[in-house]
Amino acid sequence: MRWYETGVILENMKVGERGQVTIPKDIRERFGLGRDTEVEFCVVKGSILLKKAPKKLNLAKWKGRCKNSFARLGYPSVDRFIEDVRGR
């Protein structure tokens, strides 16, 4: 029995000897769970909840990208621009 829209999915599965459980294909496809997808386990009111982990943003690749643009506007740093915008 499956009730996706109400948040309840009933599917009997067995835990393997190494602690693994197979997520049914239709559920993997519906929620975009691929081979290397990271998931989180949460305990909610005595139940285990499995959810897709949020994607981690690689902000390091953006570091320094706006420096020249802010310099052309007369700001030595992004922090100085933010202070100016906030009226400090």
Give a written overview of the molecule.
With 88 residues, the chain is an alpha+beta fold. The chain has 3 helices and 4 strands. Strands 1-2 form a two-stranded antiparallel ribbon. The model has no long low-confidence stretch (mean pLDDT 84).
List the helices and strands in order: EEHEEHH
Helix share bin: 10-25%
| Sheet with the most strands: spatial strand order | 1-2
What is the number of strand segments? 4
Average pLDDT, all residues? 84
Largest sheet: 2 strands, antiparallel
Number of domains: 2
Provide a count of the helices.
3
Give the terminus-to-terminus CA distance: 59 Å
Unreliable segments of 5+ consecutive residues: none
CATH class of the largest domain: Mainly Beta
Question: In what range is the share of β-strand residues?
Answer: 15-25%
The computed structural class is alpha+beta
Q: Under the CATH scheme, which architecture of the largest domain would be assigned?
A: Ribbon
